[in-house]
Design brief:
This protein has 90 residues and is mostly helical. The protein is 70% helix and 0% strand.
Length: 90
């Protein structure tokens, strides 16, 4: 899944840009890590869990752009883990 968008698209909001940039960057990061040293599902699920905990710690009001960035990272982890499960027949 590739969601690369034109950063100059006037129809994208700042939130959407932050989300897509974080998603694309995180997915690229995970794929690169996988090529260097195969990732196991337990580690990925742990990292995903901590991202969701971090997401929920917004009691201080971090702002919509940071929230969109975190959401992009979370969705990238989900996409990567689902693809990995599919490849492993899980």
């Amino acid at each position: 899944m590739n969601t690369i968008h034109d950063d100059h698209d006037p129809d994208l909001t700042g939130e959407q840009r932050a989300f897509h940039e974080a998603y694309d960057t995180t997915l690229h990061y995970l794929r690169t890590r996988q090529k260097i040293s195969p990732l196991n599902m337990l580690d990925l699920e742990g990292e995903y869990y901590h991202l969701t905990v971090y997401e929920g710690q917004d009691w201080g009001g971090r702002g919509v752009l940071k929230n969109a960035e975190i959401q992009g990272q979370i969705y990238a982890y989900l996409a990567f883990m689902n693809q990995l499960k599919k490849e492993q027949g899980l």
